Amino acid sequence: MRGLRLHLRLPRSRSGRIALALAIVYLAWGSAYLAVHVALGAFPPLLLSGLRNLVAGIGLFLYAAHGRRVWPTPVQVFNAGIVGTMLVGLSSGLLTFGMRSVGTGAAAVMVATVPLFATVISAVAGRPVAKGEWVAVALGLLGTVVLNQGSGSTAPASGTIVILCGALFWAGGSQLASRLALPSDLFMSTALQIGLGGAISTALAWLSGERVTHFGFLPAFAFLYLMLMATMAAYLAYGFLIRHTSPLVASSCMYVNPIVAVALGALMLGEPVTRWTVFATAAILSSVALSFWFDRRRAVR
Questions:
Q1: What residues does the EamA domain cover (predicted)?
Q2: Which of 5, 176, 187, 230 has the fewest CB atoms within 10 Å, measured from its CB?
Q3: DSSP state of 102
Q4: Spatial CA neighbour of 248 closest among 148, 53, 142, 112
């Protein structure tokens, strides 16, 4: 483990580490749509979400616990459990449940409301929100709606409400993660969050009767990808962003992920890229650029 730590050379500057964390989150969670599609060939939805988070949490915990002398306090463990329940158990669980009746494109548009919820929660919590930040949120939402233009999907009210509740829980969990006392070590904090949240999802899936009935190479490979990249690596990067950037920048992945998903769909599945895709990409990237600019202004004050 010590040798591994020595060979992991991260950028030294704050901006470099933020850029790396954003790249991991954007690519890992953007490609997770395709990986989930493949993994669902063998895993039921809630069990897939729970198992990958539970196993990833256990792996990160063993890594973080190696040679550790200072352990998190009971309060920190409790707080990590609360955040993990909101981010993994409730948010991911509700999203999975809602997608039983809502298409992927419509769900992506609804999940893109996370930055809006995050900004509103920050404003209610007392953090000043500039008018330009609301413009960035609006641009991002506009871009994701246009990205889904022409899909023709109609989401039932029940599924829509469930997914929007999942987006609200994600925004609330991110806000709590930036305010509650969590383990100082990022690996330990992430391990407890995704491990405890995954345990809750796995238990609910098992109690509801979900089981893996058959197995195959591609679903197994997709599961490993989801566990290693979309869970371990991405949650570590997201935890870093929550600690070192604003909620708007940290949640900007909700705007970029649909772009990555559309690009992979075009490359891997032959899905068409239209003028609406180009327009939406420009709007979304403008939203992210504004988010970075306001975050930098706040950091230098």
A1: 19-148, 158-292
A2: 5
A3: S
A4: 112
Closest of 94, 91, 79 to residue 178, by C-alpha: 79
Q: d(Cα 239, Cα 194) in Å, to the nearest integer?
A: 11
Q: How far is CA 260 from CA 26, 88, 167, 251, in A?
A: 7, 22, 19, 15
Domain total in the chain = 1
What residue type is 196 in one-letter code?
L
Residue range of the domain that includes 35: 20-299
Domain presence at residue 6 = no
- Length, in residues, of the chain: 301
Asked whether residue 158 is domain-assigned, the answer is yes
Helix (H) / strand (E) containing 232:
none
SS3 label, residue 213: coil
Neighbours of 67 (CB within 10 A): 8
Instruction: Give the DSSP letter string of 189-205.
Output: HHHHHHHHHHHHHHHHH
Domain presence at residue 37: yes
* Residue pair 24/18 in contact by the 8 Å Cβ criterion: no
Listing DSSP states for 94-133 in one string gives HHHHHTTTS-HHHHHHHHTTHHHHHHHHHHHTT----HHH
Task: Give residue-wise pLDDT tens across range 247-295.
Answer: 767 877 877 887 887 778 778 767 667 777 778 778 877 877 777 777 6
* Matching residue, tokens 């729970």: 50
Cα 295 versus chain centre, distance: 20
Assigned token pair, 23: 């790249």
Joined together, the tokens standing for residue 291 give 């988010």
Domain annotation covers residue 33: yes
Neighbouring CB atoms inside 10 A of 20's CB total 14
- pLDDT tens-place string over residues 169-206: 988 988 888 788 998 888 899 999 999 999 988 998 89
